[in-house]
Amino acid sequence: MARAKRGDTLSVTIDDLAFGGEGVGRVEGYVVFVPGGIPGDRLQVRLDQARARFGRGIIAGVESPSPYRVAAPCPYFGRCGGCRLQHVAYPAQLAFKSKQVADCLERLGGLGSFELRPIIGAPDTYGYRNKMEFTVARAAHRPSPHATTAGRAGDSPGDASSGEAAGQGRAGDSPGARPMVVIAWGSLNQFNPRKAYEHVADFSVYVEREWRGKGVGRRLLDRLIELAREIGYHKMVLSTFPFNEPGVALYERLGFRRVGVYREQGMLDGKWVDTLIMEKLL
């Protein structure tokens, strides 16, 4: 096919789900991510992002729906952001998630033959939450505050009848459950906005001190590397302090190599310090 461009409309058959719930299809080898797409869908997709090896688009039309597609029960699905798989039949959700677990064990864990037991489905797939968190802001075009939340793939809605919101939570939360606490974070960004560098990713990782040395950083890095490959990046680069010996050792175990030093690249305690440059080809 000719090089895809933003605004192009492609006929795409969805054959997989990415982490986060986006549908994944291919057109003559060109990967297209489609929010709301389900394996088995044949869609007209209008690209709003087009890179050399992958694109991302919105559904412009449904040529033939997936047999797993169902009507979402919440009227706010697709608008509030709290849920991503309500339009997928529940047994299919379990099958797709089971496949993702198997892929992680095989590709990231390097396991060969293993037994993956079936997921135990929830007896009640909706209305199980006892906790909701909202970000509230006053909108200029309406007199009263409105609420929105960001959720996870597969989350079912709470009672959203009182506003444009569904609760953010985790399946299985029980009365008295501790709130979610961030113990680490990672970011993945294009190294440089120029087109020549669109296949190079820069990333950052931070782990809270009390969680360091417990495997959290390794799991986070594994996920960032996997995500970079899914997106279609060719290389990952980073800049770290040379005295961060445990971090440097972890990067090297994951295949990163040292390529140089930035002189006086960062400032700590009012002093300029050098940083170590590392890279990994994907």
Terminus-to-terminus distance: 24 Å
Sheet-strand content, in percent, reads 25-35%
Radius of gyration: 22 Å
Number of helices: 3
Average per-residue pLDDT, rounded, comes to 80
- Element string (H = helix, E = strand): EEEEEHEEEEHEHEE
Instruction: State the low-pLDDT regions, or none.
Output: 141-178
Structural class: alpha+beta
Tell me, what is the CATH class of the largest domain?
Mainly Beta
Query: What is the number of domains?
Result: 2
At the third CATH level, what is the topology name of the largest domain?
Answer: OB fold (Dihydrolipoamide Acetyltransferase, E2P)
Shape: globular
Which architecture name of the largest domain does CATH use? Answer: Beta Barrel
Helix fraction bin:
10-25%
Which strands sit side by side, in order, in the main sheet?
A: 1-2-3-5-4
Number of strand elements: 12
The CATH H-level homologous superfamily of the largest domain = Nucleic acid-binding proteins
Please describe the biggest sheet, giving its number of strands, its sense, and whether it closes into a barrel: 5 strands, mixed, barrel
Which features characterize this protein?
282 residues; alpha+beta; OB fold (Dihydrolipoamide Acetyltransferase, E2P); Aminopeptidase; 2 domains; 5-stranded mixed β-barrel; 5-stranded mixed beta sheet; 16% helix; globular
